[in-house]
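[Meeting: bench + compute handoff]

Bench side (C.D.) handed over the final construct sequence. Compute side (W.E.) agreed to return the predicted structure before the next meeting so the bench team could plan truncations. Sequence as handed over:
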Amino acid sequence: MLGMLPSMHQRFILLSLLLIASSFQGLRADGNFYLKDGDRVVFYGDSITDQRLYTTFTETYVITRFPKMNVQFVHSGWGGDRVTGGGGGPIDLRLKRDVFAYKPTVMTIMLGMNDASYRAFDQGIFDTYVKGYEHIIKSVKSELPGIRITVIEPSPFDDVTQEPKFEGGYNAVLLRYGEFVKTLGQRENLNVADLNNPVVAALKKAKATDAKLAGKLVPDRVHPAPSGQLLMAAELIKSWNAPATVTEVQIDASNKSVVKTVSTKVGGAQFGGGVTWNQMDAALPMPVDTKDPAIVLAVQSSDFVEALNQQTLKVSGLSNARYTLNIDGTKVGSFSNEDLAHGINLATLPTPMTAQARKVHELTIRHNDMHFARWRNIQVPLETQKAPKVRKAIGNLITALDDEEASVIKQQRAAAKPVLHQYELRPE
């Protein structure tokens, strides 16, 4: 039995973990971030929104960066939509059923790819877009007073990795539509997100690096792959004043002190040949699929890491030339003392925190897939049923599916909660 008692060192670690846990409160405030506690966001748009990629990336960023903030997300994109509506019905039906019914406090709108009709600029077509977009804004503001609206300039048609289909190219037409969206946003006091120019800039940089792989960012020229959609999500999030910092820790080994912490708590620091400490973060990094070459290229061709995914660890005053970093007993990497003194970005490494964030994203996708199936396969196809018993059965089924989705969302939020980690820098 004596062999089961914790050593003095183990008891010290346990005590420090408890102290960190007890003091961990409100390390990250939402500050100037656009979304607030209690918000409900509806993403509205055409097939690019219907892909549920930039939207789920955005949701995962919010959940992992602000795990204590209660924000709900509903994805209401429909392929082929225009400002007048589309396959899901005319615009007023779409708004009533797929936006107003959820009573959102925040709405994003991205329309234009189909509206411009894949041809050279046509004034009559453009006028329809202007009139229809203005109708949407007026209707939403009337039905939902106080709602905060983000209008999104249309995402790009790829005239970068492939030759334009006509003089000037279709994306130049979309840019004109985007200018109207920007002007409308300024006039109506809306938030505006540009998902075109920054993505085009990344496409050009990616093409210069690897032209063939760059063509996979928007493979059919209209619908971005996950790589392109990750960049779109980044621009939307940046328009919401998203923080770049996940966490920041600075340790001075020569003075045996923790110099700085941001969005985290550090305890139990011990200094010898190396350094060990315990850490509880207030946020998780944004998970990036480094096994997808197109995503890697997209990230390298943009400011995604610098602007949104900084999880900095700086350790100065180390005496040995190289150190191995272990987190929770698993090797994360090998670094020179110069690298550590300058700072390493843990968000780009295979850490337990990234693995945790990846699980959050998996649950984000799962609950959105469930909502999509309920909405598109049951609610909409069967909404014209008139028989009372049938309508009751449909209602019961929808309620059951909503309850199951709520259960997955609960799991998603639980998966994003901070977890204590043990760090060790060991000399090599």
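W.E. noted at the follow-up: The first strand starts at residue 40 and ends at 45. C.D. will use this when planning the next construct.
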